Structure formats: C-alpha cells, structure tokens
C-alpha cells in the first residue's frame, strides 16, 4: 500500500484500490484516491484486448451504461460482456485517466483465453467435441464470479441462461456450487457486524460515509477484511470438498489462481515501465492475492498451455435492467437506478429521490402534492433514526413512499421500483466504435426510419399504406427472420385489416450478439435475411415450415429469396402425401396471398401452389378421416377448420383482382356487383353477379375453373364427410356445421342429420363427439342453440335419454363442449331448457319467453334496422323498399329524411 501521503512511488509498491463492482461509494472513493495519489498509469480489471477502445470512453456520444463485448470471430454467439455504469468504480477510473492524460490499461486475463477456457470446460462437462453449438449465444460468464456485493445463496448453482453475462474480468465457470465465503463475501462481513442484510450494511459503512481525511482508509480496511476472508476460504478449501456437494469449488479456485497470476505479471510489467506510480482498480476479493509475494516463474507456470481463440471487442449499449442481479448477472446489484441517483446527487439525496418518485406518480395520474413529499421525507428520516441508521436508505424511502404516496398499496410501488429503483436507461456508443457491417447497416436504417432502440417496452402501430411504416414493418420482419427479436408482433387494438401491424419493441443488450451472429449471412439486413431464408428453406424438415417461411418472406419483402422458397415448397408439396401435412401447410400459404395487395408483391406462383395444395387436400381428406381414434379425430377436425378458412381466403383473394379488372371505379356501390349476404358468408354468389375471372385470378389446375368452383368442390367434400359412417362423429358434426354456416345446408336438413346422429342406435360417445363437432370448439355453437329451438330440443332429448351407465363416459366430453361458451350463453341455454321446448315466445307474441327471442324471425324489427346496416356496409338503398316507419321522420328509400341529412353532414352519400 502506498504511504500515508497517498502517492505511489518507488519502493512503495502499486496503489491497490479494491472495489465493489457497480458501487457508487467505491466509485467516489476511487475518484478521491486517484486525485490524491496522481499515478502515472492506471490498471483496470478487464480484458487487455480492449485497450484500443479506451479513447472512445471520452467521446461526447458515449453515455453509460455501456459494456465491452468480446466474441469469438468464428462463432460470434460465444461471447462475454463487461458492463460499466456511470457509478461503476472501473468507469470512474477510466474517465479520470483519460481526462488527465494518464495511460490506462486493462490487466485481467485476455478474453481470448477466457472464451477458450469456457469452451474447453463445456466440452469436458458435456462430453462433446464442441461442434453441437449447445451453448451458442450464451455469453461467457453464465456462472460469473460474484465480487463483493454479488449476493447469492451458498452453494447456488450457476444459471445457464443466455442472458447471463460476465462481470468485469469474470471467468467463465462450470455449473456447480461455491463456498459461501467466495459466493458472497459481503454477506459474511455483514453477518459478523450483526446485519442480516448485506446491502444495508454496505450502505451504512460505505455509501453513507462522508469524505474522510485519508482517501485511502476505506481501501485499507476492505483489503484487511478480504484478506481475513480469503484465509478462511483457504482453510476450508484445504479440507477438501464436502461429500454432499461443492463440486465446483476447486475449479473456481483454480480459475481465480490463473487470473490473479496474470494480473500480477501485468502489475510487474507496469512497475518496470512506470516505476514512480502504478494504480490498480480491481475487485476487492483479488487485492490480497495481488499483494501476496509470488515468483514470476510460478505465475508463468500457471498460465502455461492455456487455450486461445481469436476474438473481437467493441463497445455496446447496456441497460440498468441488465445491471440488476435479477437478470442473472452475478456481480449485479438490486437497485441500479437508486445507486445512480446516489452517485449523481450533489446533496440532499433523499429529498431529491422522493421528488423524482412524486414526479413519476404524477405522470401516472396519481394525486401527489408537495405536502406528500415533505411528509415522506420526514417519515424516512424518522425510520432511519428508529432503525439506528446514519441516513435513510432505500428501504426507508421505499417504506415512506408506500405509506405516504401510495396509500399502502404495492401496485404503484411496483411501478416506482421498475421505473426508478431499477430504471430503463439505455446507454449509447459513438459511431466510431468497431462494429460488424450488419450492425452499421442496421444503425443506418434505424436512423433513416426514425426507429430508435429503447430499453422501455413500447407498442408501435404501423399503417402499411404509408411508405415509412411499410419500411419499418419490413425491417422488423427481416430482423425476426435473422433471430434478432427487437420487435414481436402483437394484436392490433385499432383494426384487423392486413394493412395494419402492431409491434412490441424492446431493445436488449444481447441483441448486439444476435446481430454479430447474423453477420455471417451478409453485410446488409436485406442480404442477410435473404441468405438466411434460402438456407432455412433448404434445411426445413416439414412442408408446414416451408409455407410459414414463404409467408415470412412476403412479410419481409424478400423477392430474391421467394423463388428459392417456392421451388422448395413445390418439391416438398409434390412429394408429401400426408393429408395432415398438406392441410397444415395450406392456411399459411393462403394467408400469404393477402399481403400482395398492400405490399405490392407478385404472388402468382404462390397462388398456383396454393390451388394445387387445395386440390390434393380435397381428394385425400375423406379417406384420411376414416378409422381415426379420438386424438386423431380431434386433430383432423382442426385441419378441417383450417382448410375451410383457407379455401374462403383463397377464393376471396382470387375474386379481388377479377373485380378490379372488370368492375367500374364505383363498383363498391353498384348493385350488380355488390356481394349479397350469401356471398359474404362464403356461398356461391348468383351467376349474374360473378364477374369472369381475370388474368390474375387464382384457378385450380383446370384452366376453366374459378374461385366459385373451388368453393363448390370444397362443399362437396364437406357433404361427403357429413354422411360417411366411417368418419368420426366430431368431423361429421363439424362438416354439417360448416355447411350450415355457409348457407349450403337448409336448417331442416341440419336438424335431420342431427336427429340421425343422436338416434338411440348411435353409441353415446359417438353422439357426444358429433355434438362437440357441431356446436363446440368456441365457434358460436352456443348462439346457434339459443336461436334454433329445434336443435336445442334434439340435444335435450338425446341427453335425457342417455343410459345411466353411459352418462359418466360422455360427461367429460359434454362438459368440455359447453364450458367453452360465454357465461351469458350458458345462462340463456339453462333458462330455455328449464322452461322446456315450445314454452317460450317472442315479445311480439306477448309470451313470457326471453326478451328478443321468438319462434320465427321478426321481419318488422329486421326492416327497421336494414337501412342502417346497408349504410354501414356501403350498399345502396333498396329500391321500392317497404320501409316500415322508423322512430321518427319521413321515409326516403327505406331510410328516414333525418338519417339522410345526418349522413350527408358526415360526407357519406348513398
């Protein structure tokens, strides 16, 4: 240790400043010690390969939190992070040295050895040759050594999460347990001082300690404490691991010895170059080892034969959330936002903190006044006195906020913890920082589209009719295809059209690694996404994977990749004879056809493949539905539903270009081309209203066939399924329901088929499956029973006639069917069954039935709302409509004069 004057000099040895990583108290102490000692060189715990990146720390665009990212050149997913916050002692030392023109060097074990050792240990642990990529993308340090303050349970196993990263200078460790002293030395010191919380002890003895006369005193005390703890660990380690566990203790101790041997060599080299003063900033745990006398030969012997790989390093943005221990970061802290506030507050930290809390709660529309802040400050100070603390800490301020500003509720307190105690700060790095070409292209696109990465999750609504929004959507889809999950699609709250997209965006530091990994596919986002899509298409194992990939290529607008994907799709579809696979692949393929209108993509080849797949499904589905067990029948029912929706979309997609080619500009308002109710529900429109297919329309293999023929063939398939006895009941029931919904099956015929399916000769289990297919699956079957008394009567009569010995077997199936209904539907059905068939009447009959229900449709009520429905659908007023009188006003073409005036004011004319 340096002399009492605080300056390092000849014969005095290096100035060893042991710190707690990400501790604001340690950061202030380091700043004061460096100002007093004025060393000629500063050594900081970190990878030496980062020395060339040191000047960037003083760049005006560098804003912590940031991290050093080291990754293997040949395998970017094998990486490690060294994070730095504004209040990190290492960052403070780095900035002090740069600002004062003092050379600064990182002196921990090189990242080339760190990553190679970790790979070697994983191969030994899993017994692999390292070529399986089992841990690709997991940064080194997913079992990081916790420095003082890194709290963990004694003997806790390292978490193998991809998000875990190394603390500055951390060595990768094998999964295993560690001695309690090494795991959390601060907990041991806190316990010796009578504290049950090491964070509270650290705040009392370091964070709340004022500046003393000797700036080196805290480092001397901490070095002495760590020396005593290391002696304890050495005594325990000499006894050998306990029989019941500590398998990783020896490995961890060996890694520490290797790191510290390298550190000592670098300190000696610095002393030879700068004999008048060397300052070392490292984790307090290593200080006794650096002070210990050791020969150069002994240190070099420990480093002999270390594996090595080629690595690249750069600066990347970091977040407060990733500094949190809850993220899996071994040297993390519980409250990075609070620590940043303590480091940045010039005075009155408690008052300033509670003012921040009040501002946040006001932004969330909570009533918080200045009186609340004053009372919270008083309460925090009182709690500190009662608990024997020198100043209020985070626990006191949190209790005060809960009691005064949150009225005892933990809900707003959770918001305070998330936004302030942890925080959503995202650091920034300058453009001059080294980066792979793909990262530079992504940064350029983000700036052009004004799509800034943010740590706070937010929703982004896109209107794809706007060029900027369309480009944003393409970028996010391309990144997802590359495995860079910056955005995730979400359900839109403003509409369901194909021209709208909703994304949830959140930038995580690990995405920088994903970008580096994706760099192997190309130097631009477009080129990399194209190459990745082509490779995924060739490597796909199932037809559904290829169709899903085709959909993603259309969303991402990858015209160069689409031909390759379509060629693979056509080959796989021709060879795949499994109807289930074809039915599973068809929906995604048909959905892709919808995106051509908005994105201007040519989907002609896709339409031909989709039509061919549909034809093969039509031919193979009836035989494939025969002789299935219960699980197979349920899976096939889902395929039938999916194909039914796909056929409707395929036909509608084919109708659209034909209508555009042959209809006038105002075709949406022309009676001859307006789709009627039957056409809207999927049934074949009248012959006079169907335009001839245009050149761009989708057709079946037969050139003369059109979208109407496609629907008709599918309905014939459903009719076959509905009456074939070898088809399971759940599929027969679903086929009848789809035909009924499509308007192709009269209600009387549906009732007849239900009566046959529920006849006494049908096994109860098969009849229950038919009911599930007809009215189950959350497809509106409950409302069908509510409005059709005959069908409800058939179900009721069958259920009451099920033999007692069979009722127990069919009950689970029936419960699953009816439990999917909305509570209101179940309540209405129960009321109808209680009153019995025929006991209800509509309001027009003046009966005592449920309001709004009648045996027959109420034409008077229907005619009253018809003009409004036509207006909403954009249909013309019905000529010569009877126009029964409405509530007020004269009738004009089925609508009142007042209605016409109101719509004219809105700019809508019919």
TrEMBL record:
<dbReference type="Pfam" id="PF18934">
    <property type="entry name" value="DUF5682"/>
</dbReference>
<feature type="compositionally biased region" description="Basic and acidic residues">
    <location>
        <begin position="239"/>
        <end position="253"/>
    </location>
</feature>
<feature type="region of interest" description="Disordered">
    <location>
        <begin position="660"/>
        <end position="709"/>
    </location>
</feature>
<feature type="region of interest" description="Disordered">
    <location>
        <begin position="876"/>
        <end position="910"/>
    </location>
</feature>
<dbReference type="InterPro" id="IPR050458">
    <property type="entry name" value="LolB"/>
</dbReference>
<feature type="compositionally biased region" description="Low complexity">
    <location>
        <begin position="660"/>
        <end position="708"/>
    </location>
</feature>
<feature type="compositionally biased region" description="Gly residues">
    <location>
        <begin position="838"/>
        <end position="850"/>
    </location>
</feature>
<feature type="region of interest" description="Disordered">
    <location>
        <begin position="834"/>
        <end position="859"/>
    </location>
</feature>
<feature type="region of interest" description="Disordered">
    <location>
        <begin position="120"/>
        <end position="180"/>
    </location>
</feature>
<dbReference type="InterPro" id="IPR043737">
    <property type="entry name" value="DUF5682"/>
</dbReference>
<feature type="compositionally biased region" description="Basic and acidic residues">
    <location>
        <begin position="148"/>
        <end position="160"/>
    </location>
</feature>
<feature type="region of interest" description="Disordered">
    <location>
        <begin position="230"/>
        <end position="253"/>
    </location>
</feature>
<protein>
    <submittedName>
        <fullName>Uncharacterized protein</fullName>
    </submittedName>
</protein>
């Amino acid at each position: 240790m340096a002399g009492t004057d605080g300056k390092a000099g000849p014969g005095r040895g290096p100035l060893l400043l042991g710190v707690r990583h990400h501790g604001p108290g340690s950061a202030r102490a380091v700043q004061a010690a460096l100002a007093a000692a004025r060393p000629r060189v500063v050594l900081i715990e970190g990878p030496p390969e980062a020395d060339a990146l040191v000047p960037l720390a003083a760049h005006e665009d560098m804003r912590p939190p940031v991290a050093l990212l080291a990754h293997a050149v040949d395998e970017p997913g094998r990486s490690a992070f060294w994070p730095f916050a504004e209040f990190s002692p290492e960052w403070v030392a780095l900035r002090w040295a740069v600002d004062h023109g003092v050379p600064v060097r990182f002196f921990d074990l090189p990242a080339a050895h760190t990553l190679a050792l970790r790979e070697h240990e994983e191969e030994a642990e899993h017994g692999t040759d390292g070529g399986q990529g089992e841990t690709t993308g997991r940064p080194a340090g997913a079992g990081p050594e916790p420095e003082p303050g890194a709290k963990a349970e004694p003997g806790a196993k390292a978490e193998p999460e991809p998000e875990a990263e190394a603390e500055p200078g951390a060595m990768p460790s094998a999964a295993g347990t560690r001695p309690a002293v090494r795991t959390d030395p601060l907990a041991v010191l806190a316990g010796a001082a009578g504290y049950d919380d090491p964070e509270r002890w650290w705040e009392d003895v370091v964070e709340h300690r004022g500046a003393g006369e000797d700036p080196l005193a805290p480092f001397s005390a901490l070095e002495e404490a760590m020396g005593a703890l290391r002696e304890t660990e050495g005594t325990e380690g000499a006894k050998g691991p306990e029989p019941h566990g500590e398998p990783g203790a020896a490995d961890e101790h060996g890694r520490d010895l290797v790191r510290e041997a390298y550190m000592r060599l670098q300190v000696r080299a610095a002393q030879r170059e700068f004999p008048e003063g060397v300052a070392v900033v490292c984790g307090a745990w290593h200080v006794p080892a650096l002070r210990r006398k050791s020969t150069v030969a002994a240190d070099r012997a420990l480093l002999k034969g270390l594996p090595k790989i080629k690595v690249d390093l750069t600066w990347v943005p970091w977040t407060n959330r990733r500094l949190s221990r809850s993220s899996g970061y071994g040297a993390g802290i519980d409250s990075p936002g609070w620590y940043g506030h303590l480091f940045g507050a010039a005075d009155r930290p408690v008052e300033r903190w509670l003012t921040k809390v009040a501002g946040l709660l006001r932004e969330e529309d909570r009533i918080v006044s200045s009186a609340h802040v004053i009372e919270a400050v008083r309460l925090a100070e009182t709690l500190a006195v009662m608990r024997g603390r020198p100043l209020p800490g985070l626990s006191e301020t949190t209790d005060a906020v809960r009691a005064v500003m949150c009225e005892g509720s933990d809900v707003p307190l959770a918001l305070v913890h998330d936004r302030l105690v942890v925080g959503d700060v995202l650091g920034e790095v300058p453009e001059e920082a080294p980066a792979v070409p793909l990262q530079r292209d992504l940064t350029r696109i983000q700036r052009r589209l004004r799509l800034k990465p943010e740590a706070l999750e937010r929703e982004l609504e896109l209107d794809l009719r706007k060029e900027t929004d369309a480009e944003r959507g393409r970028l996010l889809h391309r990144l997802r295809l590359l495995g860079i999950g910056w955005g995730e699609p979400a359900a839109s709250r403003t509409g369901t059209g194909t021209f709208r997209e909703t994304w949830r965006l959140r930038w995580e530091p690990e995405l920088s690694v994903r970008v580096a990994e994706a760099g192997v596919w190309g130097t631009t986002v477009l080129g990399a996404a194209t190459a990745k899509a082509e490779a995924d298409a060739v490597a796909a194992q199932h037809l559904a994977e290829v169709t899903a990939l085709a959909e993603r290529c259309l969303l991402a607008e990858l015209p160069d990749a689409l031909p390759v994907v379509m060629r693979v799709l056509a080959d796989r579809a021709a060879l795949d004879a499994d109807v289930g696979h074809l039915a599973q692949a068809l929906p995604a393929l048909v959905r892709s056809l919808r995106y051509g209108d908005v994105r201007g993509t040519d989907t002609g080849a896709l339409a031909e493949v989709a039509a061919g797949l549909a034809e093969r499904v039509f031919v193979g589905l009836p035989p494939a539905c025969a002789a299935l067990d219960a699980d197979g029948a349920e899976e096939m029912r889902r395929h039938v539903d999916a194909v039914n929706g796909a056929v409707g979309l395929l036909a509608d997609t084919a109708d659209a270009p034909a209508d555009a080619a042959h209809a006038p500009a105002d075709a949406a308002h022309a009676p001859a081309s307006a789709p009627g109710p039957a056409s809207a529900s999927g049934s074949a429109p009248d012959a006079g209203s169907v335009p001839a297919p245009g050149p761009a329309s989708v057709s079946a293999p037969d050139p003369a066939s059109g979208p109407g023929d496609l629907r008709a063939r599918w309905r014939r398939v459903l009719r076959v399924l509905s009456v074939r006895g070898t088809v399971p009941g759940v599929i027969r029931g679903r086929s009848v329901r789809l035909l009924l919904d499509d308007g192709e099956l009269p209600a009387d015929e549906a009732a007849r088929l239900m009566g046959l399916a529920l006849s006494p000769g049908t096994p109860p289990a098969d009849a229950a499956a038919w009911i599930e297919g007809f009215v189950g699956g959350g497809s509106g079957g409950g409302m069908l029973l509510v409005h059709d008394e005959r069908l409800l009567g058939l179900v009721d009569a069958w259920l009451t006639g099920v033999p007692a010995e069979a009722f127990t077997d069919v009950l689970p199936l029936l419960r699953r069917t009816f439990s999917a209904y909305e509570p209101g539907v179940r309540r209405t059905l129960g009321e109808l069954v209680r009153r019995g068939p025929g006991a209800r009447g509509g309001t027009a009959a003046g009966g005592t039935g449920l309001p709004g229900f009648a045996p027959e449709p109420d034409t008077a009520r229907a005619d009253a709302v018809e003009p409004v429905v036509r207006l909403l659908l954009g249909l013309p007023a019905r000529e010569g409509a009877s126009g029964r009188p409405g509530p007020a006003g004269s009738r004009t073409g089925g609508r009142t004069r007042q209605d016409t005036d109101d719509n004219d004011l809105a700019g809508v004319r019919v």
